[in-house]
Amino acid sequence: MDVRIPADDNFDFYACRKLYKKNQKLIGDNASFKQIIQNTFFFSFYENKTLVGCIYVYEKDGKTFLNGFAKRGFHLFNINALKKIFNWFKSDIYAESKHKTAILLLLRCGFKRISDNLFVYYNNMKGN
Question: What number does CATH give the domain 2-93?
Answer without folding.
Answer: 3.40.630.30
